[in-house]
C-alpha cells in the first residue's frame, strides 16, 4: 500500500473529483488530499484504494449503461437482437454476484487492518516523546490546555512539528467533533469522557482546524488554526505565554464556558485539575452518595453517580 | 338467485376479513415486541446509572411484585377460559370470565400504582436518575398497555352483551385474549429483568 | 389586559424576520383563498364526502401525493434559502439561528414529510391494483394513517409561524436537543410532529404487509408478484421492525424534556450516546425503507420500456430482502468517530460495504433487462436512465464512507452531504418521479406532457450534478455540514456559488413539473386504453382511472407478467379467458373518524408542545373517543349491486 506521492496525487486527481479539481486548480486547498502527517497520509491511501476498487465495477457499469441504452433503443430498422423472453442466466448472475463479493472481501480485509492500525486512541510509533493537549469544545469556542506546560489557549493551538501530539478530547457543551484535516481524521468531543486522538505534523506550518459536529447557534464560527513549529520556536512560544498572558482562574473558566464566540486567547496558568473536573463534571468519579442510605450505614452504590446539584436535590426527603 | 349467491359469498368474505384482521393484530404484536425490546434495552443500559440515588435492590419490595405477577398470570388464565367459553358458544360464561379477567387486571394496575406512589414518596422519582427513568418508563408502558386493555375489554363486554357471539365479536375476543397473553409474557420479562435481577 | 395579550402573542408567534412575515401573509392568503373557493363553489360537502372521509386507497394515494408535493415545495424552499446563504462568504442573509432552523426543517420535511408520504402515495395508488385486490387489507386504518401523517406534518409546519422551529438538526441529537440547551418549543413540535405521523407510518407498514400476504389475486404466488409489490413488502417489513424504535426514542426524548427524566441528559446518569445509537437503529433502515420501493419502480419501468421480461427475478427478490435485513446491521457507521474502538468500527464497516453487493446486483439486472430489448425513452424511462449513473456514483462514495478510518476524514463534511443527496435524490426522488410519471395515466386517465417533462428532467439532472459534485470537493476542502457561513480565506466560495446555481436549476425543474401537471390537466387527451405504455402487470388491465371497486371480477393469475401474457395470447389469436359472472362487490364504507381522530391528535400534540393540559387532555380524550366510536360501529360495509358495476364498466367503454 505504499503508493508514491505522485501516484497518490494523480489517482486522487483523476478519480475523485476529476474535472472540478482541475478547473479550480488550487490543490493545496484540498486538505484531505494534501495530508501533512502520517495519519492523514494513511487515510488518503485508504481513500484511493477504496476508490480504485469501486471503479473496477463502476466504470464498466457506466459504459454498459450507455452502450445498452444506445444499441437497443427502439427504432424501426434496428438490427440489434431482441429476446423479449430472455430473463435468466445462471452464469451471468453468478458473475455479478461474484465480482462485487470478491471486491468487497478485498476491501473488507484492507479496511479491517487499517481500522486497527489507525485506531485514533493508539499512540503513534515515533522516537520523540508525545506532547499532550487537552481539548474542550465549548459553546462556541475551542479551549486547549497544555498540562505539561501549564498553559492554555483558546481557538488556536501551537505544537512542535515531527512530535506526536496526544489530544485528549472532551466537551463542556453539546457534543462536537475535533478535526484538523491535513493531519488526520476527526473524533467526537463528548461530555463525561475523555477520548484520545493521536496526530503528527511532519513539518512546520499552519493547518486548518474545525468543529465538525453541529452544536448550536454559532457552531459555524468554531474554526481554529493548528500551528506546527520547530521545537525551539514552540519552547519560546510557551515561555512568552507564561510571561505575558493572564492566568486562568476557575471563575475565568466559568465565564469562558458561557455561550458566545471570541477570538484567540492565551493563559499563563490553569487551575489545578481543571480538565479532569470538566470531564467528571456530570459523572463524578466517586459517585454522589445517596444521603438516605448513608445514614443507615448500608452499602453504597459505587458506579455511575452524579455531582449535578439538580439531581442531588431529589434525594433529600 | 343472485342475491342468494351474494349472501353465500359474503359469508366467506367476512370469514377472510376476520382472519386477515387477526393476522394484522399478530403483526402489530411484532411491532409491540420491538417497542418493548427497545425499552428493555434502554433500561439495561441505564440500570446502573443511579446517579447517587437509590438502587434497584434498595427500592424493590418483592412481596408486592410477586402478588402482581400472580394476579396477572391468573388473569391470563381466565382470559383463556373466556375464549373456551366462547368456543362452546356460552355467551354468559364468556362475559363472566372477561369480567374476572378485567377485575384481576384492574387489581394489578392498582397494586402497580400503589408501588409507584410509594416509591415517589420515598423520593425515587422519574427525574432522580437514569435508572429510575428507565424503570418508570418500562414498567409504566406495560401498565399503560394493561390499562388500555381494560378499557378495550369493557367496550367489548358491552358489544358482546348487545350482539352476542358473531364472526366479528369472536375475532375481537380472540384478539384481546392474544393481547392479554402477550402482556403477560412481557410482564414475565419485566419481572425477571427488572425485579429479580434488580434485587439479586 | 391588552399588554398581556401583546406579550403572549409576541412569544407565541414567530416575529422579527421579514421572511417569516412574508410567509405569514402568504399562508393567510392561501387559506382565505381555499376557504372562499370551497364556499363559493359549494364544495364543502363534496370535500368531506369524497375526500376527507374516503377509505378508497386510490383517493388516499392521491391525497398523499398532493401533500408530499406541497412538502417538497416547502423543503425545497428551505434548501434554496440555505444555498443562497452559502453562495457567498460572510453572508448575513440568514442569521445563524434561522439557518439552523432551516437545515433542520429541510431534513425532517424531506425525509419524513416528503419522501415517506410520496412513497405511501405510490403504495396506495399501485399495490392493490397490481395484485388484483379491491382495496388494502384495512381501509379504515389506511385512512387513519393518512390523517395521522397529515396532522403530524401540519403540527410540524405550524412551528414555522407559531412558537419557533426546531433547530437541533434533523435527528435532534441530545444534549443539544435537551431542555438544557433547547428550552424553546421547537423541539416539542419536532417530537409531536414526528410521533403522530410515525404512528401512521407504522400502521401503513402493517397494512401493506397483510395486504400483500393475504389479498393477492388467485394464482399469484409470492414468486409471481410484480417486483414493485416485492419492494413494497420488503420496505413495509422494514417499517415494522424500525419504526417502533423511532417511537420509543422520540418518546424518551419527550419524557426527558417534559418530566425531567434522565435518558439522554448529561447529568443524572443519562446517556446521550444511547440516543444516537437508537435514532440510527431506526434512521439507517429508514433510508432503505424509502429507497427499496424506488428499486421496485425502476424494475417495473425498465421491463416495460425495454419490452422485455425483468432479468434475474429471483436475484432481484433476494437482493431486496437481503438489503432489508442488512439495513439493520449498519447503524453505527453513522458515528465511527465516536470512539467505539476498532472492533466495533471494523464490524460495522464490513456490514455496510456488504450492502453494496445486493445493490450492485440489482443494477446489473436492470442493465441486462435492457440488453437485447427494444428500449423507448418516455419520461419514466428517462428518470430511470438518469438514476442509474447517479445512484452508482452515490453508491461508490457510500462504500468510500464505509471504510471506517477513511470516514474520519469524510464524516460530517460536505462529502457526506453530497453522498447522501446523491443516493436520496438520484435514488429516491428520481425513482418516485419515475413512478409518478409512469402511473399517472392509471390514476388520472391521461398522460403528463412529455415535452415539458423532458425539460424538467434535464433541469433536475444537470442541476443535480452542478449542485452536488462541487460539494464532494468542498468536503475534501474541509467544509463541514451545518456551517451557517464561512470566510473568504477558505477558497470555498466558487464551488459554493456553483452549487447554489445547481440548486436553483433543480428548483426551476420543479416549477416545470408543476407547469407540466397544470398544462396536462388542461390539454392532455384522455387515455381510453387503460394501458397507455403497453405494460405488463395487472393494474394496466383495468380502465383508467380505475373504478372504485378496481376489478369488476377478480383476475386469475398464472404468470409473472400476467397482463402482458394475456395480451400475447390475444395477439396469437387465443380466445380471452372466460370471465366469471359479475357478483355484488363488498366494499368498506367511508368514515369521518380517521379525520377527526387525526385532528384530535393535532390538538393533543399542540397542547403538549405548549404544556397546555387544558388542551392536551381533551385532545387525548377525543382520540380515545374516536377509537371507541369505531369499535362500536358495526355498520362499516356495503355491497355494490351488479347493475351498478355494469353501468360503471360500460361508462369506462369496456364490455362486461
UniProtKB/TrEMBL annotation, chain A:
| GO molecular function terms attached to this record | copper ion binding; cytochrome bo3 ubiquinol oxidase activity; cytochrome-c oxidase activity; oxidoreductase activity, acting on diphenols and related substances as donors, oxygen as acceptor
Write down the CDD domains for this protein, in alphabetical order: CuRO_UO_II (cd04212)
Q: What InterPro entries does the database record attribute to this sequence? A: CcO_II, CcO_II-like_C, COX_ARM, Cupredoxin, CuRO_UO_II, Cyt_c_oxidase_su2_TM_dom, Cyt_c_oxidase_su2_TM_sf, Cyt_o_ubiquinol_oxidase_su2
**Class in the EC hierarchy, top level:** oxidoreductase
Tell me yes or no: is Lipoprotein among this UniProt entry's keywords: yes
A GO-annotated cellular component:
plasma membrane
List the protein's name.
Answer: Quinol oxidase subunit 2
Residue ranges spanning the membrane: these are: 47-70, 96-116
Membrane topology listed for this record: Multi-pass membrane protein
Q: Which residues form the Cytochrome oxidase subunit II copper A binding domain?
A: 128-240
Native organism: Cohnella pontilimi
The entry assigns this protein to a family as follows:
Belongs to the cytochrome c oxidase subunit 2 family.
Pfam families xrefs: COX2, COX_ARM
Q: What does this protein do?
A: Catalyzes quinol oxidation with the concomitant reduction of oxygen to water. Subunit II transfers the electrons from a quinol to the binuclear center of the catalytic subunit I.
Against SUPFAM superfamilies, the record matches this protein to: Cupredoxins, Cytochrome c oxidase subunit II-like, transmembrane region
Q: Which UniProt keywords apply?
A: Cell membrane, Electron transport, Lipoprotein, Membrane, Oxidoreductase, Palmitate, Respiratory chain, Signal, Transmembrane, Transmembrane helix, Transport
Cellular compartment(s): Cell membrane
Q: Which residues does the UniProt record annotate as the domain Cytochrome oxidase subunit II transmembrane region profile?
A: 24-122
Catalytic activity, as annotated: 2 a quinol + O2 = 2 a quinone + 2 H2O
For this protein, what is the EC number?
1.10.3.-
Q: Which GO terms describe its biological process?
A: ATP synthesis coupled electron transport
Q: Which NCBIfam families match?
A: CyoA
UniProtKB/TrEMBL annotation, chain B:
Show the SUPFAM superfamilies listed in the entry. Cytochrome c oxidase subunit III-like (SSF81452)
* Localization, UniProt: Cell membrane
Keywords of the record: Cell membrane, Electron transport, Membrane, Oxidoreductase, Transmembrane, Transmembrane helix, Transport
Source superkingdom: Bacteria
Ranges annotated as spanning the membrane: 25-46, 66-86, 93-111, 131-158, 178-198
Q: Which GO terms describe its biological process?
A: aerobic electron transport chain
Q: Which Pfam families does the record associate with it?
A: COX3
Q: Which GO terms describe its cellular component?
A: plasma membrane
Single GO molecular function: cytochrome bo3 ubiquinol oxidase activity
Q: Which residues form the Heme-copper oxidase subunit III family profile domain?
A: 1-199
- CDD domains, alphabetically? Ubiquinol_oxidase_III
User: How does this chain sit within the bilayer?
Assistant: Multi-pass membrane protein
User: Which family does the record assign?
Assistant: Belongs to the cytochrome c oxidase subunit 3 family.
| Record note on quaternary structure | Heterooctamer of two A chains, two B chains, two C chains and two D chains.
Function per UniProt: Cytochrome bo(3) ubiquinol terminal oxidase is the component of the aerobic respiratory chain of E.coli that predominates when cells are grown at high aeration. Has proton pump activity across the membrane in addition to electron transfer, pumping 2 protons/electron.
NCBIfam families from the UniProt entry: CyoC (TIGR02842)
Protein name, as recorded: Cytochrome bo(3) ubiquinol oxidase subunit 3
Name the gene for this chain: cyoC
Automatic annotation (TrEMBL), chain C:
Sorted alphabetically, which SUPFAM superfamilies does this protein's record hold? Cytochrome c oxidase subunit I-like
A GO MF term? metal ion binding
Tell me the protein's name.
Quinol oxidase polypeptide I
Q: Which biological process terms from the Gene Ontology are attached to this UniProt entry?
A: aerobic respiration; electron transport coupled proton transport; respiratory electron transport chain
Q: From the UniProt record, give the pathway where this protein acts.
A: Energy metabolism; oxidative phosphorylation
Q: The Cytochrome oxidase subunit I profile domain covers which part of the protein?
A: 40-558
Q: Where is it found, in Gene Ontology cellular component terms?
A: plasma membrane
Alphabetically ordered keywords of this record: Cell membrane, Copper, Electron transport, Heme, Hydrogen ion transport, Ion transport, Iron, Membrane, Metal-binding, Respiratory chain, Transmembrane, Transmembrane helix, Transport
Q: How does it sit in the membrane?
A: Multi-pass membrane protein
UniProt-listed PANTHER family: CYTOCHROME BO(3) UBIQUINOL OXIDASE SUBUNIT 1, CYTOCHROME C OXIDASE SUBUNIT 1
Q: Where in the cell is it found?
A: Cell membrane
The organism is Cohnella pontilimi
Reactions accelerated catalytically: 2 a quinol + O2 = 2 a quinone + 2 H2O
Which Pfam family, any one, appears in the UniProt record?
COX1
> Which cofactors does it use?
Cu cation; ferriheme a
Member of which family? Belongs to the heme-copper respiratory oxidase family.
Membrane-crossing residue ranges in chain numbering: 20-41, 62-81, 101-127, 139-162, 189-210, 230-255, 275-298, 310-332, 344-368, 380-404, 416-440, 452-473, 493-515, 595-617
Give the superkingdom in one word: Bacteria
The main location class comes to membrane
